[in-house]
From TrEMBL:
Domain PABS: 308-450
tRNA-binding is among the record's keywords: no
InterPro entries assigned: PABS, SAM-dependent_MTases_sf
Transmembrane portions of the chain: 27-46, 52-75, 82-102, 122-144, 156-176, 182-198, 205-229, 484-504, 516-536, 542-560, 572-588, 600-620, 632-652, 658-675
Keyword entries, A-Z: Membrane, Polyamine biosynthesis, Transferase, Transmembrane, Transmembrane helix
Family that this chain belongs to: Belongs to the spermidine/spermine synthase family.
CDD domains: AdoMet_MTases (cd02440)
Coiled-coil region list: none
One Pfam family from the record: Spermine_synth
UniProt protein name: PABS domain-containing protein
Annotated organism of origin: Planomonospora alba
This protein's record includes keyword rRNA-binding: no
Length: 681
């Protein structure tokens, strides 16, 4: 095969104009824009629509559908996809005019899931977001797909991957800088201009108006909301006086999150904050660890209780900055306090320090979700293995404590039984208030190192077992996929089938690429296992996630380059290597990897996680290189990835390790569907 010309054909009446950029440059820019836009949509819609906390990969599924449709539309029309910026403008305006936030009109710390929300109901806004995400992403995907026929198969895929890496890098850099959404909108407007800029004045107006609307609307949001954009949240805050006491109220993504209050008043108003110090038998507080330090109130209480040194662990840098600037007690200015901006579980696994008291101080967003396949920031902090790691960081006579508003009595019992399993004896359990199940769970290193006010009766019948690293779903009471997710996913798949038929033509054109569809399904599950595995081994921070996603693309790019430049084994052999890599990943336990020093752990984790990813993409590259219709083959693979996003919810039942078994079965199915000619070659 030879590479085609590097520029598009001359302009013809009724078709898109010739482009100033060569094919390779245009492909890189369009691919970078496609991934950047996907990440920005996921982040921005989640910050303004509370319901997306229940459906964590909703926008991702819509994006996959749109990207797949964009590739399948190639060849069916030459019209520029102006529908993409127009739809993006409509989506931005709808979300900003009708945001879904918590209606908080009462005092105290409450659960946003028990409060009313303002804005459209979920059955209305979620379909709008899903459909809009699909249409928006379909535009840049169509532009990427139009470049594929002009290049040799693997060369086009190579530049697509380079562009994707560029998009991840750009979004990561903006996240690091704390850039607000108006910066994301400006990038989108510039990309639309570069990729779609028409020659006629009418066409330029049609493109410029929606782009300016997006930038203007996001600019107004940035100026009026007074928000700080952390790598995780849209953080807003207000300062006021309550009973003459200065209070800073903090919300993240429209959800009441925490309050910065003087330590003395916090202890006076809410008894739970004093109980860890009363239940710990030790009276020495030379070293205290606070996980979930937030804006600093728990750190200020530790100092008030006599702590000589405090390690304050907080995953979100913006929350720490707010506390540093506005907390009435100024705890972060105290020389006794050392701040660590990292994931709490990762800190426990890495540190060699020992503590008299370890506190898990409300290290979550106070959400009660019946099931969610994507990891929450705190998912790996409440497993049995995490509590065992905390126990291993206690000095003789030390104690561990956690407190929160758990809302459900079974959740208190589940966490207490987790602590019991880790420490080997019953902890102290204080239910301070049955309203919201405000509770404190404390355990000494030994039973003699704790001083309980009363004996915990033990977990009630029907309490789910302690969560484990492979099933870190604390809020999932039963090991099943909740019905609301099954219904939602069924509707998503039904709508997707209709959309593919309506916009991309008959399904028969994809029939020769059924194996590529299954490769897409399996690879999404494999990628999910890799991302969650690295989050456990190195933390759920945004830096780790960005590195892992980029690493996956680098592994894919390496597989493409090896396939392009070297003589690789036949497809049956590569399928064998792939299945062997999956078996290795299944056999190596996370506990063994966590026991390694961090540098060695990184090397071992990369080998275990990326060997099957590399082999899977050699398989895909070899098959894709010989496909008769590049855009249809690629579109089928991307639609498979969307189906894989739905199957990801199986982790709620089989665990993340079980996803490797499901992926292996799918790869076997892909091999069975492999055309005879490809198998023989």
């Amino acid at each position: 095969m030879t590479a085609a010309a590097q520029s598009t054909p001359p302009e013809r009446p009724g078709t898109r104009p010739a482009h100033l950029l060569g094919t390779r440059s245009r492909l890189v820019v369009a691919s970078a824009f496609m991934l950047f836009l996907e990440l920005a949509l996921i982040r921005w819609t989640g910050s303004n629509i509370v319901h997306l906390s229940y459906f964590t990969n909703f926008v991702l599924l819509g994006s996959f559908l749109g990207i797949g449709l964009g590739f399948l539309r190639v060849g069916r029309t030459d019209r520029p996809p102006y529908y993409s910026p127009v739809t993006l403008a409509v989506l931005v305006l709808v979300v900003l005019v009708f945001p879904v936030t918590v209606d908080r009109r009462t005092e105290g710390v409450l659960y946003w899931t028990s409060l009313s929300t303002g804005g459209p109901p979920p059955w209305l806004i979620l379909p709008v977001v899903f459909a809009a995400a699909a249409v928006v992403l379909m535009g840049p995907a169509e532009l990427v797909g139009r470049c594929f026929p002009e290049l040799e198969r693997l060369e086009a895929y190579r530049y697509d991957l380079i562009g994707s890496l560029t998009g991840i890098g750009l979004f990561t850099a903006l996240s690091f800088l704390g850039a607000p959404p108006v910066a994301w909108g400006a990038v989108a407007a510039l990309a639309y201009a570069v990729l779609l800029w028409p020659r006629s004045l009418r066409g330029r107006l049609a493109l410029a108006v929606p782009s300016l609307l997006v930038v203007g609307a996001l600019g107004v949001e940035t100026l009026t909301a007074g928000a700080l954009w952390s790598p995780y949240y849209k953080v807003t805050h207000s300062r006021f006086a309550h009973q003459g006491v200065p209070v800073m109220d903090i919300q993240v993504n429209g959800i009441p999150h925490q309050q910065a209050i003087p330590a003395a008043k916090r202890l006076e108003w809410e008894r739970q904050y004093a109980l860890p110090y009363e239940r710990a038998a030790t009276r020495r507080l030379d070293d205290v660890l606070v996980v979930g330090a937030g804006s600093g109130t728990d750190v200020a209480i530790a100092l008030a209780e006599g702590a000589r040194r405090v390690d304050a662990v907080e995953i979100d840098p913006r929350l720490r900055e707010l506390g540093e600037a506005h907390h009435p007690d100024r705890p972060y200015d105290d020389p006794r306090v050392t701040v660590h901006i990292t994931d709490g579980r990762a800190f426990l696994e890495r540190t060699g320090a020992k503590y008299d008291l370890i506190l898990f101080a409300l290290p979550d967003s106070l959400t009660l979700v019946s099931g969610a396949s994507s990891l929450r920031l705190e998912s790996y902090l409440f497993t049995r293995e995490a509590i065992e790691a905390a126990r291993g960081r206690l000095k003789p006579g030390g104690a561990f404590s956690m407190y929160n508003y758990y809302r459900e009595s079974w959740l208190v019992d589940r966490l207490a039984s987790t602590v019991q399993a880790a420490f080997g004896h019953r902890p102290c359990v204080d239910v301070v208030s049955t309203t919201g199940q405000q509770a404190v769970i404390t355990a000494g290193l030994t039973a003699a190192d704790q001083s309980c006010g009363g004996r915990w009766a033990g977990a009630a019948a029907g309490t789910p077992p302690p969560p484990e690293d492979d099933l870190p779903f604390l809020y999932l009471k039963e090991r099943t996929v909740p019905q609301i997710y099954l219904v939602t996913l069924a509707l998503i798949l039904a709508v997707s089938l209709l959309a593919v038929r309506a916009l991309a033509g008959p399904y028969g054109r994809m029939r020769p690429y059924a194996d590529l569809f299954l490769l897409g399904v399996a690879f999404l599950l494999l990628e999910t296992k890799s991302v969650t595995g690295f989050a456990l081994l190195f933390g759920t921070t945004w830096v780790v996630n960005a590195i892992v996603f980029a690493g996956v693309l680098v592994a894919v790019l390496a597989a493409v380059e090896v396939t392009r430049r070297l003589r690789t084994p036949s497809l049956p052999v590569m399928y064998g290597v792939l299945l062997a890599g999956l078996a290795l990943a299944w056999l190596v336990p996370n506990s063994w990897l966590l026991g390694l020093p961090v540098p060695l752990r990184a090397v071992a984790a990369v080998v275990v996680a990326f060997l099957p990813i590399f082999a899977a993409n050699v398989v895909f590259a070899k098959r894709f290189a010989d496909s008769a219709d590049a855009t249809t083959a690629f579109g089928a693979n991307l639609l498979g990835a969307m189906a894989g996003g739905c199957l990801e919810y199986l982790a709620l039942v089989v665990g993340y390790r079980g996803l490797l078994v499901v992926a292996a079965l799918l790869y076997l199915g892909a091999f069975a569907l492999l055309p005879r000619g490809a198998r023989a070659a």
